[in-house]
Amino acid sequence: MSAENMDPTPSAHNNSAVQLSLMSLVMVAGLSGFCGGLAWAIITALLDMIGLIHLDKFNSFITNIITFPMIGLFFGSFFAFVGFPIFKPICRRMRGLKLSGLFIN
Q1: Rounded to an integer, what distance in angstroms lies between the CA atom of residue 48 and that of residue 26?
Q2: pLDDT digits (tens, 9 = 90+) for 3-25
Q3: How far is CA 93 from CA 19, 28, 54, 74, 96, in A?
Q4: What confidence tens digit (pLDDT) does each residue in 29-43 have?
Q5: Nearest C-alpha neighbor of 37 from the set 7, 2, 69
Q6: What Rg do the C-alpha atoms of the chain give, in angstroms?
Q7: According to the model, what pLDDT value does residue 75 have?
Q8: Predicted local confidence at residue 13, as pLDDT
Q9: Could you give phi then psi for residue 60, rounded to 5 degrees?
Q10: What is the pLDDT of residue 36?
Q11: Domain coordinates of the chain in residue numbers?
Q12: Contact, 104 vs 9, CB < 8 A?
């Protein structure tokens, strides 16, 4: 096989099995919680502006946009940390989490 016919990019795979470490799981869950809190703050602010709901306790948009993502980040990370001892043996028994997508080695 000549050098001209070789593809310089690594081959792409569709499926992969991974097992997340403690820090990886905490970071993924924390990011999910942060994004969920941000989305919830935006949704409640929009519904309050439209007039579909009336917020008595959480009536400050700036406070919501800061606190909801931080609360989601904290609880996502906390529950990932607490649940890791359960997650690890289950993931090991299943031989990793099965992910699909475009993976390049």
Answers
A1: 32
A2: 455 555 556 667 677 778 899 88
A3: 11, 21, 48, 29, 8
A4: 999 999 999 999 999
A5: 69
A6: 21
A7: 96
A8: 62
A9: -100, 120
A10: 96
A11: 19-104
A12: yes
Q: Is residue 77's pLDDT more than 50?
A: yes
Residue with tokens 């997340």: 20
Name, in order, each residue with C-beta under 8 angstroms of 16's C-beta and a sequence gap of 6 or more. 98, 99, 100, 101, 103
> DSSP letters along 26-83, please?
HHHHHHHHHHHHHHHHHHHHHHHHHTSS--SSS--HHHHHHHHHHHHHHHHHHHHHHH
Say if residue 66's pLDDT is above 80.
Answer: yes
Instruction: Enter the tokens of residue 104.
Output: 């390049």
Classify the C-alpha dihedral 65-68-73-74 as positive or negative.
Answer: positive
DSSP 8-state symbol, 8: S
